[in-house]
Design a protein that fits this description.
- The chain has 309 residues and is α/β, with parallel strands linked by helices.
- The protein has 2 domains: 25-103 and 212-289, D-Maltodextrin-Binding Protein, domain 2 (3-Layer(aba) Sandwich), CATH 3.40.190; 108-208, Periplasmic binding protein-like II (D-Maltodextrin-Binding Protein, domain 2, 3-Layer(aba) Sandwich), CATH 3.40.190.
- The chain is built from 15 helices and 11 strands.
- α2 packs across α12 and α11 crosses α12 (249-260).
Length: 309
């Protein structure tokens, strides 16, 4: 009887150990915004785990650091902006897009803003000439679209002094007066406004009125080729989690607060990015045009080879 019980326990233990070993370890790197909320929710709600993925979110300070982190394998999947991804690929890094994370919508475009420090009134493109503007990564989404906004309104972006500022430090840097304005998104914008460190100068992305991808999930081409089943499971998890992000604010807020290290009340009161899990090569065409206008690309990217469809 005792031998039988011991044998049963040993068998169960081996099964559990086998299940644990079957879990594929994956690190997912994103900045402290709501754009990667689908991955955050997929982890917190056990979606990835159910699909065989032992996933962990890794906080990346500046979006432009994500491609290097992917290539060094310190993370296996990352959430670069479309602009950072295209620049990295254009520069020769072997990256491939595997799933959508967030996209612009008429409502969500209002969430991005240039926040101006107290004592200054900067509302028009020409007002930013000669000013110091903090951007969360040169060539990143917020930076490229701000430059687009300037150019569309006849302002030479070379006349604006851009510096790199991480999302977590924006409030303190703006308060100190080290910069005149910062380019940011939610929930950071609301946090800065509530802290009284500045005011919204312009909702420049809303003025552009686009519906293109903002951030999407990418991997190194080598890792993607070696892990097709992991990518399949990841995509399934992102699709399921995107529904929660877009339709269940309580669950989404819990995951966002945990990853971004923001207070729950702030996250709940702040708008979220729209989760858009679909990703096709045609979705990046407008970005290529915009980046070419800003001389951010050396060649003409073959989008058909850059997105794993």
């Amino acid at each position: 009887m005792l031998k039988s019980l011991i044998g049963t326990i040993a068998g169960v233990t081996m099964l559990l150990a086998g299940a644990a070993q079957a879990q594929q370890r994956v690190k997912i790197g994103c900045t402290a915004t709501t754009d990667c909320a689908s991955a955050m929710v997929a982890i917190d709600q056990g979606i990835f785990k159910r699909l065989g993925l032992d996933a962990e979110m890794v906080l990346i300070g500046i979006n432009s650091n994500i491609p290097a982190a992917l290539m060094s394998n310190s993370i296996q999947i990352g959430g670069p902006t479309a602009t950072v991804f295209l620049q990295a690929a254009d520069g020769g890094l072997g990256l491939v897009g595997i799933a959508g994370a967030s996209a612009m919508t008429p409502a969500n475009n209002q969430f991005t803003a240039v926040v101006v420090r107290n004592g200054l009134s900067l509302t028009k493109p020409a007002d930013f000439i000669g000013k110091k503007v903090g951007a969360p990564g040169f060539g990143a989404y917020l930076h490229v679209l701000f430059v687009k906004w300037l150019m569309d309104n006849g302002v030479d972006p070379a006349k604006v002094n851009f510096v790199e500022v991480t999302f977590p430090t924006m409030s303190d840097i703006l308060r100190s007066g080290a910069v005149d304005a910062v380019l940011s998104g939610e929930p950071i914008v609301t946090r800065m406004l509530n802290a009284g460190v500045g005011s919204v100068g312009a909702r420049y992305v809303a003025e552009l009125g686009r519906n293109d991808p903002i951030i999407f999930y990418a991997a190194s081409r080598t890792w993607a080729a070696q892990n097709p089943q992991v990518i399949s499971a990841f995509r399934a998890g992102i699709r399921e989690a995107a529904e929660i992000v877009n339709n269940d604010p309580d669950k989404a807020s819990e995951s966002i607060a945990r990853f971004t290290r923001q207070q729950m009340d702030l996250v709940r009161s702040s708008p979220r990015s729209h989760a858009a899990p679909a990703l096709t090569s045609s979705m990046l065409s407008w970005w290529v045009t915009v980046m070419a206008q800003q001389n951010l690309l050396q060649g003409n990217p073959d989008l058909g080879k850059l997105i794993l469809e």
